[in-house]
Design goal:
- The protein is 65% helix and 0% strand.
- Helix 2 runs antiparallel to helix 3, helix 7 crosses helix 9 and helix 10 packs across helix 13.
- The relative contact order is 0.06.
């Protein structure tokens, strides 16, 4: 997937980049003082100065990811968000340079944006997949021994060891990176009117099958209701509680409720099931009619 900025956007991005590169870098003491003023006094001017001084860091980081086909301006914008997050969370008491701390936030924001927008299919949902996505091309270029740049089994195993992932994950990501998004509405060939979606199988049941299943279910329900109606009240309770619920009652539970032993409940249940089979058998011509279609 590739994006192309319009000329006006390109000029605006170029102006921003030039302005960012002209900003002077801060000394360590200046960083800490600005951070202290922002965190302690909520001095927005100090925050603005701290962020503005490191927009060049955003630009340089975004430039490292421009080969992923996304607009440079968008990468810079996402990097600026990461820079703002770093400034909001930076603690000068830890005695770490702000530039070092902000680099991680900037890179993380840009990488997340790339993973969300590189393809319409979500890529890199786990830490291992993210590692593969941002390192596979570099490692493949280093060790690939085929003219097409594809890896053999040995190359995949080497990358898997280096990145500490499974070999099949390397192969899956390699296939993912070598493919591009394609619309299902696109024609399969220039001379054809058929689109790719025309060849997708529809696994949903047909309207005729849905109607038939509904009618069959209604008939079976009628058979069941008639069979239950011929049971004694106690047998009906046992069948409804034991057989017609997702979590049927136990023999002990029904025994306590009906004031009989669990063995007596089992006998009554067996007798009720026999009666129901006899009633249903008199109302159908083929026993196979009782089977429910999958």
């Amino acid at each position: 997937m590739a994006y192309i900025d319009d000329p006006q956007t390109q000029r605006a991005n170029l102006r921003f980049i030039r302005a960012a590169m002209r900003e002077p870098m801060l000394e360590r003491e200046d960083e800490f003082e600005l951070a202290r003023r922002w965190r302690g006094d909520e001095d927005e001017a100090a925050l603005h100065k701290l962020v503005q001084s490191y927009t060049r860091l955003v630009v340089s980081t975004a430039a490292r990811f421009r080969n992923y086909g996304l607009p440079m301006g968008d990468l810079v914008q996402e990097g600026n968000i990461g820079l703002m997050q770093a400034a909001a969370k930076f603690d000068p008491a830890r005695e770490v340079r702000f530039s070092t701390y902000a680099t991680w936030w900037i890179r993380s924001a840009i990488q997340d944006y790339i993973l969300r927008n590189w393809s319409i299919v979500r890529t890199g949902t786990t830490a291992a997949q993210k590692t593969l996505f941002f390192n596979l091309r570099r490692l493949r270029a280093r060790i690939a021994d085929s003219p097409t740049g594809r890896l053999n089994d040995e190359g995949r195993q080497e990358i898997a060891r280096e990145l500490r992932v499974k070999c099949h994950e390397v192969e899956s990501m390699e296939n993912r990176l070598s493919a591009s998004d394609q619309s299902l509405n696109a024609t399969v060939a220039e001379s054809s009117e058929d689109s790719w979606q025309d060849f997708l199988a529809d696994t949903r049941p047909t309207p005729e099958l849905m109607v038939r299943k509904r009618l069959d279910t209604e008939v079976r329900s009628q058979w069941l209701d008639k069979a239950i109606s011929e049971l004694s009240p106690r047998e009906q309770i046992i069948i409804r509680r034991r057989r017609l619920r997702d979590e049927g009652a136990t023999l002990e539970e029904l025994g306590r409720e009906l004031g009989v032993s669990k063995e007596r409940v089992r006998q009554l249940e067996h007798r009720a099931m026999t009666k129901m089979r006899d009633v249903i058998s008199r109302n159908i011509e083929k026993p196979s009619d009782l089977l429910v279609d999958a």
